[in-house]
């Protein structure tokens, strides 16, 4: 048993609906998945029900957006929160920040290319927000480019490009996000560590702040980086996760559900993590009572 614990649906920046993703997982022989839409928990209950009907275990999850101390966007995965409603305030705040930034980028794109904001919004139909892939989709529709991740994408959305139209949303800090996940009784995992600037320093800071795990198996990590992350996770006894970050046609590279997986041993550890913490707390309480 293994699982793809990083999947996005049409509710945010993916292109496929929940039913199609679960059908694809079943077709691929992936028995466990996590729906981790960006700052959105709207599909969690429905995904679990549809998964049960199809023999697929769906782990409740969400990918929360944050900013580190240098203003870099960092993503933190939250799995199996006991009190998911406690994350709604954070999701709402981040969603508003995303929407404001997206509107500014959308207007900039509409000024430079023969498209309207209505076309861009139509490309985001079904999503709870508007994301960069939707803008690129609209630019494809109007003939400005023939692929999502083309030279035009690098021109418009690469920080190194002088012609970029990027707007950084005013997300919560990573420290606030970690506190909210803890308050909600969730498992916190740093998403795709290999994708960040100063990744080693960031990882160390987040470990010291109490993050529960790291995403080891992911498209952004080559073999050497994966081995390095695995060694780090094992040394510090962190949970280790694998996922494709599947987004359908909005993928950065050719891959599908199950292209990157959480191995059986690590998946078992995640599924039993909360029970383990409860046992440890119970033993600690019993030991304290005996000492008194």
Task: Put the structure in a nutshell.
The chain is an alpha/beta fold. The protein has helices at residues 18-28, 44-53, 88-112, 117-123, 132-141, 151-157, 174-183, 199-208, 223-235, 264-271, 273-291; strands at residues 3-7, 32-35, 57-67, 73-79, 187-190, 213-217, 239-242.
Layout of SSEs?
Layout: E1 3-7, H1 18-28, E2 32-35, H2 44-53, E3 57-67, E4 73-79, H3 88-112, H4 117-123, H5 132-141, H6 151-157, H7 174-183, E5 187-190, H8 199-208, E6 213-217, H9 223-235, E7 239-242, H10 264-271, H11 273-291
Parallel strand pairs: 1-2, 2-3, 5-6, 6-7
Antiparallel strand pairs: 3-4, 4-5
Helix pairs in contact: 4-5
Can you characterise this structure?
The protein has 292 residues and is α/β, with parallel strands linked by helices. The protein has two domains: 3-64 and 74-82 and 174-291, TIM Barrel; 94-157, no CATH class. It is 45% helix and 14% strand. The chain is built from eleven helices and seven strands. The chain has helices at 18-28, 44-53, 88-112, 117-123, 132-141, 151-157, 174-183, 199-208, 223-235, 264-271, 273-291; strands at 3-7, 32-35, 57-67, 73-79, 187-190, 213-217, 239-242. It has a seven-stranded mixed beta sheet with strand order 1-2-3-4-5-6-7. α9 links the parallel β6 (213-217) and β7. α4 packs across α5 (132-141). It is globular, with a radius of gyration of 20 Å. The model has no long low-confidence stretch (mean pLDDT 95).
What are the salient characteristics of this protein?
292 residues, 14% strand, alpha/beta, seven-stranded mixed sheet
């Amino acid at each position: 048993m293994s699982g793809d614990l990083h999947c996005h649906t049409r509710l945010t920046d993916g292109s496929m609906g929940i039913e199609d993703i679960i059908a694809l997982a079943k077709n691929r022989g992936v028995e466990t998945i996590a729906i981790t839409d960006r700052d959105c928990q709207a599909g969690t209950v429905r995904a679990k029900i549809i998964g049960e009907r199809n023999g697929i275990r769906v782990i409740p999850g969400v990918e929360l957006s944050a900013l580190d101390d240098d203003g870099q966007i960092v993503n933190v995965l939250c799995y199996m929160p006991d009190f998911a409603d406690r994350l709604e305030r954070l999701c709402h705040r981040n969603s508003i920040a995303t929407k404001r930034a997206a509107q500014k980028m959308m207007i900039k794109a509409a000024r430079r290319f023969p498209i309207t904001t209505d076309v861009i919004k139509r490309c985001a139909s079904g999503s709870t927000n508007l994301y960069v892939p939707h803008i690129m989709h609209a630019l494809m529709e109007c003939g400005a480019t023939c692929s999502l991740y083309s030279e035009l994408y690098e021109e418009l959305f690469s920080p190194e490009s002088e012609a970029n139209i990027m707007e950084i949303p005013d997300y919560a800090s990573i420290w606030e996000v970690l506190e909210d996940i803890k308050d909600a009784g969730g498992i916190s995992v740093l998403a795709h560590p290999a994708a960040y600037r100063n990744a080693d320093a960031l990882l160390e800071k987040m470990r010291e702040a109490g993050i529960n795990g790291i995403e080891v198996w992911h498209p952004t990590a080559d073999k050497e980086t994966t081995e390095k992350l695995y060694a780090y996770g094992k040394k510090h006894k962190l949970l280790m996760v694998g996922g494709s970050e599947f987004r359908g046609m909005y993928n950065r590279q050719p891959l599908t559900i199950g292209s990157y997986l959480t191995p059986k041993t690590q998946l078992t550890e995640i599924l039993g993590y909360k029970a383990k913490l409860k046992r440890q707390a119970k033993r600690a309480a019993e030991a304290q009572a005996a000492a008194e």
